[in-house]
């Protein structure tokens, strides 16, 4: 009799986990990188192929790293918010142009506005892999010591800016 209960117990446990999953937000996938040093890289810049960018340049600053691509529909949704945020000079925004064509990327920025202080070209996506990018857009808040403080999966929304990103940046800038 006890042997017959084991599959039933396993089934109930699995159903319990699945039921709990129905109430989780898929945009809040915990990142194992939060609280850890941002992966280092050196990539060519979109605006000047002979120049490079490395996160080491941003030490002692709180900044955003936004992965994006001209072919990304969700990137186009968040772009106006990034442009407005950049106009405020509240925080530097560094772009990581992910698996994109340089000409297409530059054309898109010329037409839609360029919120990025610097744009690094991740043509093969290797840096995105190091950051754990699931898909574009994704945005990282990086603190003055170069630690990842927050990861936004998917497009930045007004709510995410207001409720999470801006308060966190203010807190980090005050430290």
CATH fold assignment: Glutaredoxin
Question: Helicity level, as a percent range?
Answer: 25-40%
Task: Characterize the main sheet.
Answer: 5 strands, mixed
What's the SSE pattern? Answer: HEEEHEHEHEEH
Would you tell me the structural class of the helices and strands?
A: alpha/beta
CATH homology-level superfamily: Glutaredoxin
Q: What is the CATH first-level class name?
A: Alpha Beta
| Outline type | elongated
Please tally the helical runs, counting DSSP H or I stretches of 4 or more residues: 5
Order of neighbouring strands in the sheet with most strands: 5-4-3-6-7
Would you tell me the overall average pLDDT?
91
What's the domain count?
1
Overview of the structural elements:
The structure is a single chain. The protein has 175 residues and is of the alpha/beta class. The chain has a single domain, classed as Glutaredoxin. 39% of the residues lie in helices and 18% in strands. The protein has a five-stranded mixed beta sheet. Strands 1-2 form a two-stranded antiparallel ribbon. β1 (43-44) and β2 (52-53) form a beta hairpin. The model has no long low-confidence stretch (mean pLDDT 91).
Helices and strands, with pairings:
Layout lengths: L1 H20 L21 E2 L7 E2 L9 E6 L4 H15 L5 E6 L3 H11 L5 E5 L3 H5 L7 E5 L5 E6 L4 H17 L1
Parallel strand pairs: 3-4, 4-5
Antiparallel strand pairs: 1-2, 3-6, 6-7
Question: Could you name the key traits of this structure?
Answer:
5 helices, single chain, elongated, 175 residues, two-stranded antiparallel ribbon, five-stranded mixed beta sheet, Glutaredoxin, alpha/beta, 7 strands
């Amino acid at each position: 009799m006890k042997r017959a209960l084991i599959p039933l117990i396993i089934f109930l446990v699995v159903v319990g986990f699945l039921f709990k999953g129905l109430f989780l937000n898929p945009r809040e996938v915990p990142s194992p990188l939060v609280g850890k040093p941002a992966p280092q890289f050196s990539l060519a810049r979109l605006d000047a192929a002979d120049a490079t960018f490395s996160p080491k340049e941003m030490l002692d600053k709180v900044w955003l790293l936004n992965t994006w691509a001209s072919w990304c529909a969700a990137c186009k949704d968040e772009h106006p918010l990034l442009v407005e945020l950049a106009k405020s000079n509240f925080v530097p925004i560094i772009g990581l142009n992910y698996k994109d064509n340089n000409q297409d990327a530059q054309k898109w920025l010329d037409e839609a506005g360029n919120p990025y202080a610097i744009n690094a070209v991740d043509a093969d996506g290797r840096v995105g892999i190091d950051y754990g990018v699931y898909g574009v857009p994704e945005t990282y808040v990086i603190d003055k010591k170069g630690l990842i403080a927050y990861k936004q999966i998917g497009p930045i929304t007004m709510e995410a800016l207001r409720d999470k990103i801006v308060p966190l940046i203010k807190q980090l800038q005050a430290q």
